[in-house]
């Protein structure tokens, strides 16, 4: 039964003994951990996500921002990380105005590592449409895209150990990786990146890279951040492409050195 499982809330990975088919003896292997993480606002539980137990303050801030629960850092008075036997609570204190807004549109969802919309109670809740469009239309050179893609794999320490996590990174206009966040869930990794960027001070002069496919929600979260370009290692969905067009996001997929596919706003990528 689930309550009998040992939940490790302290480590993003643990070492297990395994027997590989091509090996003659038992070996040690690093395995990624996933933990139930509850977002609790002003004492009221709002959502539970399965995620890697790392960069939790970034996760709390990024999720709150990308879900429209807060509009900026000043809406959050404090974040407390509480380890429980069955998971982790992120106890987030927000302003009374933002909390009232949250109660007005409150929904319960149970997050899974593969789906950011699991648990939405109605179809209207499933597509959380941003109220803004991208206002920074940055032009990116192909050399910057290639440089960032070449460097990305060297920054994924958890993926190197476990082979089980996604990464989202922020690169500047020159293609230099500035920040990276990893998680067993691609949406979680992007939320953590958004939180880290909000803490640092986001200026929009760069682009987001994700090691996953470009789903609708990855587009939605990138638009909420205010970034003008999302680059995905895998394919986009049709809904992601239409959403990117609607909100002014340059969407690039199948980005694997030296090739990539531009799906929206092709004029924003230059060869020189």
What does this 3D model show about the protein?
The protein is α/β, with parallel strands linked by helices and 272 residues long. The chain contains eight helices and 15 strands. A six-stranded mixed beta sheet has the order 10-9-11-12-13-14, with helices on both faces. Strands 5-6-3-4-7 form a five-stranded mixed beta sheet. Helix 6 runs parallel beside helix 7. The protein is globular and about 55 Å long. It starts with 12 loop residues before the first strand and ends with a strand. The model is unreliable at 108-112 (pLDDT under 50).
Provide the domain count. Answer: 2
User: What kind of sheet is the major sheet?
Assistant: 6 strands, mixed
The number of helical elements comes to 8
Mean pLDDT: 90
CATH topology-level fold name of the largest domain: Cytidine Deaminase, domain 2
Strand content: 25-35%
Distance between the termini: 58 Å
| CATH level 1 name of the largest domain | Alpha Beta
The backbone outline, from C-alpha atoms, is globular
Give a short overview:
The protein has 272 residues and is of the alpha/beta class.
């Amino acid at each position: 039964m689930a309550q009998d499982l040992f939940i490790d809330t302290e480590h993003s990975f643990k070492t297990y003994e395994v027997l590989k088919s091509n090996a003659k003896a038992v070996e040690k292997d690093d395995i990624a951990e996933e933990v139930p993480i509850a977002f609790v606002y002003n004492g009221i539980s709002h959502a539970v996500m399965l995620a890697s137990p790392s960069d939790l303050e970034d996760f709390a801030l990024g999720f709150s921002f990308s879900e429209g629960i807060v509009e900026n850092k000043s809406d959050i008075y404090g974040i407390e990380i509480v380890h429980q036997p069955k998971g982790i609570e992120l106890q987030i204190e927000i302003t009374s105005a933002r909390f009232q807004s949250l109660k007005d549109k409150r929904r319960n969802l149970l997050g899974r590592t593969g789906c950011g919309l699991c648990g939405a109670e109605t179809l209207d809740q499933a597509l959380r449409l941003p109220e803004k469009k991208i206002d920074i239309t940055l032009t990116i050179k192909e050399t910057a895209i290639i440089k960032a893609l070449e460097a990305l794999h060297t920054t994924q320490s958890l993926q190197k150990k476990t082979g089980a996590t996604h990464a989202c990174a922020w690169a500047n206009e020159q293609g230099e990786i500035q920040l990276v966040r990893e998680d067993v869930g691609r949406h979680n990794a992007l939320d953590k990146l958004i939180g880290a960027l909000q803490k640092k001070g986001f200026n929009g002069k760069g682009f987001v890279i994700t090691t996953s496919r470009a789903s609708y929600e990855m587009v939605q979260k990138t638009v909420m951040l205010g970034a003008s370009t999302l680059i995905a290692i895998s394919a986009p969905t049709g809904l992601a492409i239409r959403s990117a067009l609607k909100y002014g996001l340059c969407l690039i997929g199948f980005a694997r050195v030296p090739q990539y596919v531009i799906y929206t706003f092709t004029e924003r990528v230059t060869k020189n």
